[in-house]
Amino acid sequence: MVFTEAFRGIVNYSRILARTSCRGVQFSIEQRGLHNILHKSFVHSFPNSFPVEHSSNWSNRRHIFYSKFGGLLLVLGAYSFSWYLFPARVKADSGVGVSEQLEEATEVEEPTTQVRFPTWLEVEENGLLKRQRLLGAGPRFMTPLRVKVYAVGVYVDEKEARSILSGFKYTDPEQLESDGRFWSTFSTPRSDPGEGRKGFGKTFRLVCIREVAGKHMQNGFDRGLLKRVREAEKKMNMPDGKQALKKFNGFFLEKGTMAVGCELLFVCSANGTVDTWIDGVHYGQVKNDALCWALSDMFLGMKPVSKEIKQQVSQGCFSWLQES
Asked: Which residues form a coiled coil (predicted)?
């Protein structure tokens, strides 16, 4: 029933759009005195729809052309519409945000995707197990139709992060969210006393909510990270980002298709390394400051790929900084 109604709706919408577009084109043509030329062209192109013996009544048969044009629009929209035919089970956006659930829960649910995130996560950094705290989580949308592809949770090494971020004071989460200085400090890739830099461990946990090909995931991250690693090299003296990104992207291709529920961990250590884990398997480590910074900036910078993720993490950061 849902599929039938959805399909009927998109067909009707395509016909309405075609009719509206064609009327606009027809008006423009009539204003320029090309009405008869267009008529002859249609008779030649669509002899079955515009028979010569009924050419005087062709204007009454325009709905046939509208149907043909509407069909073209339907085909163009079919690929995007197909994302909705077999989605993972996702309810309407509702419920309490992740940041509001963090105070007492051991596990929280991202309301848009229903993906659950533990409030604490054990990750391996250079052979050592470390415990990191969830700051917030949100959905990642793709295409103009805002198709939900995966949910992202952001975790930090609480002790390391608090020693670096505790000096920031805000009156509300919105003030924190818009402070570029805070997020620049948050995204520092590694600690280097000689350069006056202090970094801390952080992890980005992604959970797929629909099946995604490794090539598609690679393309998505390449679009988000390539311009950022270039910026890091030009403006922040962080070289070799493109080579690091190529190695990082190779992990998605090595994995191949990622099923619904597939878990990806990008563990960024304070020494400038990124470890990639997919469904519990370690795919490799990349040591590069530009890549570490670009990952943080992609999700939490001043032009994030998902405003929803940054908003939730900002609210979580604000609440966390208020704690004694």
From this structure: none
Locate 177 and state its tokens: 């969210």
274-291 burial code (b ≥16 CB/10 A, e <16): bbbbbeeeebeebbbbbb
Please check the confidence at residue 282 and state whether its pLDDT lies above 60: yes
Joined tokens for residue 127: 């052979």
Domain at 107, CATH number: 3.50.70.10
- Domain-embedded: residue 207: yes
pLDDT, tens only, 308-323: 999 999 999 999 999 8
Residue 134 tokens read as: 């969830």
Number of domains in the chain: 2
pLDDT at 2 over 50: no
| Statement to judge: residues 67 and 113 lie in one domain | no
For residue 193, is it within any domain?
yes
**Residue 88 located in a structural domain:** no
- Report CA-CA distances (Å) from 115 to 92, 176, 205, 214, 244: 13, 26, 11, 21, 30
Residues 103 and 160 in one domain: yes
Assess whether 113 and 16 both reside in one domain.
no
User: Cα(120)–Cα(128) distance, rounded to whole angstroms?
Assistant: 16
Neighbouring residues of 259: CB distance < 8 A, sequence distance ≥ 6: 208, 211
Q: Which of 165, 144, 29, 128 is nearest to 80 (CA)?
A: 144
Is residue 107 predicted with pLDDT exceeding 60? Answer: yes
Quick one: CA dihedral 255, 259, 263, 264, positive or negative? Answer: positive
**Whole-number Cα distances in Å, 162 to 107, 110, 132, 210:** 22, 24, 12, 35
Q: Is residue 66 part of a domain?
A: yes
- Hey, how many other C-beta atoms are within 10 angstroms of the C-beta on 33? 8
pLDDT tens, residue by residue, 229-263:
999 999 999 999 999 999 999 999 999 999 999 99
Domain extent, residue 311, equals 98-322
Distance CA 99, CA 260 (A): 24
